[in-house]
Amino acid sequence: MLLKMICTPEVVCCSPNVTALAAARLMRQHHVGDLVVVDDPERDQTPLGMVTDRDLVVEVLARERNPAELTVRDIMRTPVVIASGNEDATQALERMKTHGVRRIPVIDQDGKLLGIVSLDDMLVRLAADASMLVDVVTREQGREHRTRR
Amino acid sequence: MNVGKICQCRPVTVRAQDPLTTVARLMREEHVGYLVVVAPEPAGELLRPIGVLTDRDIVVTVVAKETDPRALTAGDIMNTQPVTIGESDSIGNALQLMRRMGIRRLPVVGRTGALVGVLSLDDVIDALAGEIASVAGAIRNERNIEGVLRA
Which of A14, A119, B18, B129 is least surrounded by CB atoms within 10 angstroms? Predict the structure, then answer.
């Protein structure tokens, strides 16, 4: 399964120049815990980094800095681990494991943001296959009972 | 396998009166995003969970609304009356509870109601993955052992 089939296309982005406060507001407004930082949120969305709600707490609040005075560039995580839309999901998962990341922006062949995929997305896909295992096992038992009376 | 066997045993806790900057620092130092707010029982020995709070709670309540975090405490932000799970409860019960409440972490309490740990969905995934790997291992070994016994 290719990543572009399972990634979430709606990604909330921001520019590295917005304040940490503006980033917090975006997270609240869109009910997300992370933002993909891109060079131009309006058009050319090349991922530069990621900023999460945790970053706001540990980089800004824990250090008693003012979120209105810091920019996303000051606190974002970069470089960002990304994946291609044409990459196999299993391969991407291996890379997520290697880098210890829960979410990974997905880009198209021009390097522009296509969507985002998370460990939860991977889990849902795997669990769907696993729950079919249950059906296969129970039906096999049913067939055995029916065909060999 | 029950909740007590797979949960994280040394939960990071705070008191309701702890200032938010302390809470944030603790999250940074302990590398956690979820804290349990505890209150001592009148006898002073047990720590009872009275609330939970996450890094997200801090961000959406404080930062996005531009309230001065120095003026707030853990008690101001926490989710009160947290849903808890017993350490001898089954994983299935824990998952049903998480599903019903739409949450992925539960404070774990002992028989007396004292906080003994935190169970997160990540812990459940880890445990289940381990058991499925054991199933796969048993399948592989069946073939190998058959090969040895009936050489």
Answer: B129
Residue whose C-alpha is closest to residue B14's, from B95, B88, B73: B73
The strand order across the sheet containing B34-40 reads B13-14, B34-40, B47-54, B79-80
CA distance B98 to A97: 25
Please calculate the CA angle A30-A32-A34 and round it to the nearest 5 degrees.
125
Three-state secondary structure call for residue A52: strand
Q: What is the pTM of this model?
A: 0.87
Mutate to test the interface with B, among A25, A53, A75 (most CBs of B within 10 A): A53
pLDDT tier at B44, thresholds 50, 70, 90: low
ipTM over 0.90: no
A124 touches chain B (CB under 8 A): no
Q: What CATH number belongs to A3-147?
A: 3.10.580.10
